Amino acid sequence: MTNKRTGQSSLPLGEMSAKGGQRGNLYNYIIGIADNSLILGQRLGELCGHGPSLETDIASTNISLDLFGQVRNYFQYAAQVIEDDTVTEDTIAFLRLERQYKNVLLVEQPNTDFGYTIVRQFLFDAYHLLFLRELENSKDATLAAIAKKSIKEVSYHWRFSSDWIRRLGDGTEESHQRVQEAVSDLWMYTDELFHQTDADKAMITQAIGVDTLKLKDTYYKMISEVLEESTLEVPESKYWHKGGKQGIHSEHMGYILSDMQYMQRTYPNMEW
Question: Checking CA distances to 42, which of 49, 101, 230, 253 falls within 20 to 30 Å?
Answer without folding.
Answer: 230
